[in-house]
Each structure stands twice: as structure tokens, then as C-alpha cells.
TrEMBL record:
<dbReference type="Pfam" id="PF00996">
    <property type="entry name" value="GDI"/>
</dbReference>
<dbReference type="GO" id="GO:0015031">
    <property type="term" value="P:protein transport"/>
</dbReference>
<dbReference type="InterPro" id="IPR000806">
    <property type="entry name" value="RabGDI"/>
</dbReference>
<dbReference type="InterPro" id="IPR018203">
    <property type="entry name" value="GDP_dissociation_inhibitor"/>
</dbReference>
<dbReference type="GO" id="GO:0005737">
    <property type="term" value="C:cytoplasm"/>
</dbReference>
<comment type="similarity">
    <text>Belongs to the Rab GDI family.</text>
</comment>
<dbReference type="GO" id="GO:0007264">
    <property type="term" value="P:small GTPase-mediated signal transduction"/>
</dbReference>
<dbReference type="GO" id="GO:0016192">
    <property type="term" value="P:vesicle-mediated transport"/>
</dbReference>
<dbReference type="GO" id="GO:0005093">
    <property type="term" value="F:Rab GDP-dissociation inhibitor activity"/>
</dbReference>
<dbReference type="InterPro" id="IPR036188">
    <property type="entry name" value="FAD/NAD-bd_sf"/>
</dbReference>
<protein>
    <recommendedName>
        <fullName>Rab GDP dissociation inhibitor</fullName>
    </recommendedName>
</protein>
Length: 450
């Protein structure tokens, strides 16, 4: 491997594959390596055999719930906003030509012991048990304010400077009850906890607008999802990179990230007896001291918490949800005396991720105690009888340096949120650190001959 590259990318998680694709489109010579023999890393979708091999190496997958090839089970469940940052990325890069999408059938919120649909139309809002009659009027006034708000038009501000005023003051102005604040903040603005109420309100208002725009795009719910699992996304961006000249090496172990002893700057990567050189490296935290520390290796990542996820195989839809084939349920933290929300994502054969008659529910939250699985209990209790369950606790890693000084750029672990907007934020952050320029998605990428 005597060639020198502009960039080496380590790991084929979604974040890394998007960055690899964008760099290749930008004319950079990219080498992409992964220790696994499949695309997707943590964001890969597993078939039945792979699932059992990962969680129960000594067991064999059951034969009475369909064929191996019927399954594409996400390890990290996330949906795509119909009008969000990931949709912009998909359209800009034109990788939509490699993908097919399905709409998620419903968005639900847990309140006072019951699961309620988040209203998707004005008629649904009027019938919704989430609010009483007078509260519905107050909420309507709030949503009219949010939809009409324009940063550059003081006439729409109603005396509130959203760049300074905390969200709790906005709620107070419209007289919204705590339960309504719960469903707005957690089921629409999708915050994991209530700290956002103390922050300037602008970010929350923009999130609510994004949710509403995504809901308006297709109705039913604000989310879409790729057919055959989330693992299709990293593969699509890898294909984009390859079309623009990117080189891929799967099943390639990385033994050492090499730096210049004099300057500390990145110079290359060693795999066994082979060394490959490049100007910079981008990679997921597991290649830089997270989990697989090499002796003498500089620690470049820190753990900032953990996420617990349970992949549950069901033989029925979730009770009390009108038997929809796919959904999200958010359990706001203060409904179950927690500091962080619990998320449930349900998928079925309509999304091409499991056999007909089977449903897959993934329950996840941020770990708060020494018994993570017990923290999922409120979510698991909503599922009805569970055919099988696979629990995984994953550390959340974040880089300790920007990477600008040593040209070693590290991405973040996938968090507990139920959407891909935080992945897009990480892509934008790394792109700015690598190039010194913000990521612009103005023009659509021009298709090249494959």
C-alpha cells in the first residue's frame, strides 16, 4: 500500500460513510477501512443468524419465525424526518436513487398510563384526549404563534426575544399545562430531558416547526424509514463514495494509527505489516482508544454516558395503537420518574425488516442506574407478550480534541434519540473541522458515470 491518500476513513458507520461520500464528491482521494466484513458498523442491520451470533453465540436462530433473509434488524433504531437534515443530505447527494422509503404510520406519546397518538391533523387535535377543551384553545394559540414566528420580523414576536427568553417563559405566556409542555417538548421537539426549558426558546421553536413541516409532508407521522433497515443508508453513501473513486477495504484490522514523533500529526495507518499514508484520518471512537486501547496509545475519546437498548421480537402489533405496522412511542421522563425519556420504535414486514406476522420493537433510553435493563421496564410493559429479547448496553463516546492540530478527526457515538438529526449535526461538525468551511447543501451533486 504505497499510495498516499487525501483521507483515510475508519469504520463504516453511517456518520463515517456520509463523510466519506461527501469527501469523494469533493474530489478527495479516500481510503475507507473497516475491521468488520460488512458495512454499517454499529448502524448495521443484522439478519437473524447475525443477531443470535452477536447476542447468543451458543444458540441457533429459531426456524419458526421466517427465513434469515427476511430480517434486517437495526441495532440502533432511528427514523428520518420527512423535512429534516438527513433528507436534505440524501437529496443533495442523490443517494435516494439507491434507496426506497416507507412512511412510519404513527407517532405516539405516553401520558397518565396510556398511549396516545400525537395529533397529525386539526381534527385529530380536537378529538385528542391529550388536552381538555380550554387547553386545546391555548395550545392552538401557541402553535399559531410558532408557525408565524419569523426571526427578522418583530411583529411576529409578541414581545418575546426567543434568543434570550427561556422556553419555560414561552409556555407560561400561553398558559400551557405541564402535560401539554411534556408532549410538545418530548414528542415534538424531541428533547431527552427537561433541561431545554431553561435554555433560550429559539432552538425549541425551530424543532417544533421542523416536526410540523415533516408531519405536513405526508401526514400520519413526521417520519420516513428506508426499506430493508437503517443499514441501507451507510451502504448507499459507500456506493456514492465508490462512484467518485473511493476505495473500500472491509475485514481489515487497524493495528495502529501512526503519528509523526516530532509534530504529533497523523501520517498513516498500520494493518499488520502494511502501512498506508494519508493527510488526515476520520473514524469512529472505537479506533481511537474506546474499547480497544493499545498500549501507549493516546486517549482521544471520553465516555459521557451509556445507552441501553432492547431489540424485541413480537408476534403482534403493540396493544392500544390501532394495530399500525410501524410507530414511535415516546415516554416522557417525568411520566415514569426518570431524568431521560424512553423511546420505542416498532417496525414490521411492511418495512422489509422481518417476516410477515412478526414485529420488531426496539426500546431504548439513557442509562441512569446500575441495572440498565430494569430502566426499560415502562417501555417493555407496553409491548404485550415478547417472543424474544436482546439487550445491549453501549457507551456513548465523544472526542476530547477537535482534531485540527493532529489531523485526527473522531466522530461521536450514536445517542439515544429516535431520529437522525444528531447524526447530521455530527457530520456537519466534523466536516467543518476537517475543511474549515461549513457544509453547504445548495446544489445537488451531479451524477457521474458508474
Amino acid at each position: 500500500m504505497d499510495e498516499e491518500y487525501d483521507a483515510i476513513v475508519l469504520g463504516t458507520g453511517l456518520t463515517e460513510c456520509i463523510l466519506s461520500g461527501l469527501l469523494s464528491v469533493d474530489g478527495k482521494k479516500v481510503l475507507h477501512m473497516d475491521r468488520n466484513d460488512y458495512y454499517g458498523g454499529e448502524s448495521a442491520s443484522l439478519n437473524l443468524t447475525q443477531l443470535y451470533r452477536k447476542f447468543r453465540p451458543d444458540a441457533t436462530a429459531p426456524t419458526d419465525i421466517g427465513r434469515d433473509r427476511d430480517y434486517a434488524l437495526d441495532q440502533i433504531p432511528k427514523f428520518i424526518f420527512a423535512s429534516g437534515g438527513m433528507t436534505d443530505l440524501l437529496v443533495h447527494t442523490d443517494v435516494t436513487r439507491y434507496l426506497e422509503f416507507k412512511q412510519i404510520s404513527g407517532s405516539y406519546v405516553y401520558r397518565d398510563g396510556k398511549v396516545n397518538k400525537v395529533p397529525s391533523t386539526e381534527m385529530e387535535a380536537l378529538r385528542s384526549p391529550l388536552m381538555g377543551l380550554f387547553e386545546k384553545r391555548r395550545a392552538r394559540n401557541f402553535f399559531v404563534y410558532v408557525q408565524n414566528w419569523r426571526e427578522d420580523d418583530p411583529a411576529t414576536h409578541q414581545g418575546l426575544d426567543l434568543k434570550k427568553v427561556p422556553m419555560k417563559d414561552v409556555y407560561a405566556k400561553f398558559g400551557l399545562e405541564p402535560g401539554t409542555q411534556d408532549f410538545i417538548g418530548h414528542a415534538m421537539a424531541l428533547y431527552l430531558h427537561d433541561e431545554y426549558k431553561e435554555q433560550p426558546a429559539k432552538e425549541t421553536v425551530l424543532r417544533i416547526v421542523q416536526y410540523s413541516q415533516s408531519m405536513a409532508r405526508y401526514g400520519k407521522s413526521p417520519y420516513i424509514y428506508p426499506m430493508y433497515g437503517l443499514g441501507e443508508l451507510p451502504q448507499a453513501f459507500s456506493r456514492l463514495s465508490a462512484v467518485y473513486g473511493g476505495t473500500y477495504m472491509l475485514d481489515k484490522h487497524v493495528d495502529e494509527v501512526l503519528t509523526d514523533p516530532a509534530t504529533g500529526k497523523f501520517i498513516g495507518v498500520r494493518s499488520g505489516e502494511e502501512t498506508v499514508k494519508a493527510k488526515l484520518v476520520i473514524g469512529d471512537p472505537s479506533y481511537f482508544g474506546a474499547g480497544e486501547m493499545k498500549e501507549g496509545q493516546k486517549v482521544r475519546v471520553m465516555e459521557e454516558g451509556m445507552v441501553v437498548r432492547a431489540i424485541c421480537i413480537l408476534k403482534h402489533p403493540i396493544p392500544g395503537t390501532e394495530d399500525v405496522d410501524s410507530l414511535q412511542i415516546i415516554i416522557p421522563q417525568n411520566q415514569v420518574n426518570r431524568q431521560n425519556d424512553i423511546y420505542i420504535a416498532l417496525l414490521s414486514h411492511h418495512q422489509g425488516v422481518c417476516a410477515q406476522g412478526v414485529y420488531v420493537a426496539i426500546v431504548s433510553t439513557v442509562v441512569e442506574t446500575s441495572v440498565p435493563e430494569k430502566e426499560l421496564a415502562p417501555g417493555l410493559a407496553l409491548l404485550g407478550p415478547i417472543f424474544d429479547k436482546f439487550v445491549q448496553v453501549s457507551p456513548l463516546y465523544t472526542p476530547t480534541t477537535t482534531g485540527v492540530e493532529d489531523q485526527i478527526f473522531i466522530t461521536r457515538s450514536y445517542d439515544a434519540t429516535s431520529h437522525l438529526e444528531t447524526v447530521v449535526a455530527d457530520v456537519r461538525d466534523v466536516w467543518q473541522r476537517v475543511t474549515g468551511e461549513p457544509l453547504k447543501l445548495e446544489k445537488k451533486v451531479v451524477e457521474v458515470q458508474e
